[in-house]
Amino acid sequence: MVRADPDSRDDQLTTVRVGLLGCGNVGGALVELVDKEADAISERSGVHLAITRIAVRDLTKDRASSGPPGRLTDDAMSVVEDPDIDLVVELIGGIEPAQSLIEQALRQGKSVISANKELLATHGAHLHDLAAKAGRDLLYEASVGGAIPLVRALSVSLAGERVSRVMGIVNGTTNYILSRMQSAHTTYEEALAEAIRLGFAESDPTADVEGHDAAAKTAIIASIAFNADVSVDDVYRQGITDIDIADIDFAQRRGYAIKLLALAERDGEGEDESIAVRVHPAMISNDHPLALVNGPFNAIFVEGEHAGELMLYGRGAGGQPSASAVLGDLLDAARALKRETTFLHPVRRRVRIRPIDELESTYCITLEVLDRPGVMAAVAEVFGRHGVSIRSMEQVGLTSEARMIFITHLALESDVQATLQGLKELDSVVRVGGLVRVIGDEDGE
Amino acid sequence: MVRADPDSRDDQLTTVRVGLLGCGNVGGALVELVDKEADAISERSGVHLAITRIAVRDLTKDRASSGPPGRLTDDAMSVVEDPDIDLVVELIGGIEPAQSLIEQALRQGKSVISANKELLATHGAHLHDLAAKAGRDLLYEASVGGAIPLVRALSVSLAGERVSRVMGIVNGTTNYILSRMQSAHTTYEEALAEAIRLGFAESDPTADVEGHDAAAKTAIIASIAFNADVSVDDVYRQGITDIDIADIDFAQRRGYAIKLLALAERDGEGEDESIAVRVHPAMISNDHPLALVNGPFNAIFVEGEHAGELMLYGRGAGGQPSASAVLGDLLDAARALKRETTFLHPVRRRVRIRPIDELESTYCITLEVLDRPGVMAAVAEVFGRHGVSIRSMEQVGLTSEARMIFITHLALESDVQATLQGLKELDSVVRVGGLVRVIGDEDGE
After folding, report:
1. A58 membership: H or E segment, kind and range
2. Is the preceding peptide bond at A97 cis, omega within 30 degrees of 0?
């Protein structure tokens, strides 16, 4: 047992006892993986992992992996407080009771592995403080990008690197929908229905299509990439529900794909340093590796001052990939515990979060207008009044209406928002479509 | 100083003194990076890195980063044996004197960071043994794929994962050449000349175009992915010098790209376990993310039993990306030293290496033949005699000759090699082109 034998610093096999909270999709896959691969894991890591207690909500449910009698309980706090447990894996999700359980585990000197993006994106700073005070690890590779080793890449491999920007496709549901709209020329509604049918979307897809899931992941990514306190409330968020097949067609004709992009950017140094974090649909050139990430896959593109451009790609969700990520964390935390140290040395700073109003970007704006004389002049006047200059425009006639698609020069978000408001007030404008920011194209044509 | 104060297990700042061997492209970038980012590195890692001694070949050479007087020396062994040095970074390259220096450093209880793919691919097993005996780290993230955190992903993140296959584009020079042949429709010679002009290839490109560089990296990748002793001599190697623009055109028409692919595969369990390691040109479907990796970029695609498919992408070479990778290793090793432990717990096994003769694949074979009656029958007879069955064939008339391109059904390498030998002996065959194996297409049409 780890804590009972502080002198055991050698590389002999140590048993680390794990308490698992929650045994659904990911938990079940984890139990199976640890049970099945126990020998291979010991051989590779020098640590024998044993999941000795599992807390579940419903004890009467049939489970493939209940294991020896007495392993299952419906009292999660008793697992956390069990003195025989060295490490706690939290796979319950949501804020409570997950937060209280993790806090209690850390207070009891147990390291914690979690896949809980909602909790970490909301109370990550507080939980990190607790972990640091306890001298224990709080690891959460599985909270973003499934098995993609993103958290470790940013917190370990790139620990000496000044990361300037992270851009990612971190939500498989929306990426599946946008990919299908592009490749099969289906409408948003058809692609969504297909995604639900195939299990890539929940029957209530709000958390995905409105960008809530991606925003939580963006907060976690930014906090690790920039060693900063970033919460989900700091993230500007726009979902994909306004994206029309006409927008996708237009982008494709111009050599772009439309993706729901998670962005975390750092600007300035010292006191002038600021961080921008946002999730929104973006046009991204087909030359960019992110444009080619299709279907339910995730990818994260990192720009470092010295490392250059890096991209990590893989399946962003699913029981087995997430279990694989949890296991990686488990091994790091277990080996660190065995040596009475921590795997990570996290430092968090408070950095100014730049509001979206200060964003400078090029924008793609779609309007449906009545097809009558004077419309173009009225529309152009609104752009001009707010200082937003148009780089290119395309007009397609519908029946009694027309669709206008504008690409702006570099403009300030607040000016563009004022422009959109002005356009909505025009009698001749029937509908203002989804705003799509253009990425990687800083006003060069 | 690390070793003088074994009780200092707290998180207070510890200075780790680094001796650098070799100060060329990567070394210079490392010195600049460590000097410039010292504060940020301390803040993130809890370790103060100081490069206190630098061994160079030529003391008279002007350097931007020589630092304080006395830091430079031309006696590398004196750096290795300096009792004030805690960690040695070897950036000399080649077998000797790098090997003797690393061995001596490990014997003196110093952890070693190296970017030396040639040495690690040749004597990696021996050096790992030495490091294990010394209880020190031997880390080499920069030896494969520049700043791409591949070694760490395979050895740490996926430590609990059963990796079945790793496929990679690990040589930027050949990828640039093949990408140019495909996108700009240039010949091999033109693309090579351009690569040399742009600095993507050496003036003597042999090590790259013949696949030696990729083979060394493949050995390193396989040894980490499978925890096995794999040396560069185990790697089957075929370069890209036989690839013709006609091969690329043919592949493109069929929806494939041709890439120089590094492959490491594991088959079987226990006593039946075997590893195949090879580097050769391969046709890979445009649906596969590796097909879209163009120019000087590298990418490594990992298939794990639980993690699913992962890909890591980035710049594979260059002083700054490699320095960034070395720094990541430095921090891991320094933090481990501070805690009197090691970062990695490497285990190596001897596993049977499957010879290329046992490979089953589909093949693309190009022939230039005299355009006269009976040729097709003679060619088909050779295929038939060796039991290689043809899935599809395309014939293009040249002037007095014709080009035939065959795709086989799944066939055994030894049979295909015998077929090629038989084809070369036919009077009507002018030239047998480069053999290209087809990947990810196990005989389905």
Report:
1. none
2. yes
Q: Which of A311, A327, A330 lies at the smallest CB-CB distance from B313? A: A311
B36 is catalytic: no
Summarize pLDDT for A91-126 with one digit per residue, the tens.
999 999 999 999 999 999 999 999 999 999 999 999
Tell which B residues from 72 to 91 touch A, by Cβ distance under 8 Å.
none
What is the CATH code of the structural domain delimited by B14-147+320-338? Answer: 3.40.50.720
Q: What 3-state DSSP class applies to B67?
A: coil
Nearest alpha carbon to residue B162 among B289, B276, B267: B267
Q: Residues spanned by CATH 3.40.50.720 within chain B? A: 14-147+320-338
Helices (H) and strands (E) counted in chain A, each on its own, are 14, 19
Q: Compute how many other C-beta atoms are within 10 angstroms of the C-beta atom of residue B242.
A: 16
Q: For the domain covering B161-315, report its CATH number.
A: 3.30.360.10
**Beta-bridge partners for B48:** B15
Q: How far apart are CA B286 and CA B277, in angstroms?
A: 23
pLDDT tens track for A9-68? 344 568 999 999 999 989 999 999 998 888 888 877 788 899 999 999 888 876 666 667
Residue ranges of chain A that CATH labels 3.30.360.10: 150-314
- What is the ipTM score, two decimals? 0.74
Domain with CATH 3.30.70.260 in chain B: 356-439
Q: What is the CATH number of domain A150-314?
A: 3.30.360.10
Assess B233–A contact: CB distance below 8 Å, yes or no. Answer: no
- φ, ψ at A59 (rounded to 5°): -70, -20
Window B:188-227, CB contacts with A under 8 Å: 227
CATH classification (class only), A356-439:
alpha beta
Strand extents, DSSP E, B201-267: 236-237, 256-267
Q: What is the pLDDT of residues B146-173, one digit of tens each?
A: 888 888 888 876 767 789 999 999 999 9
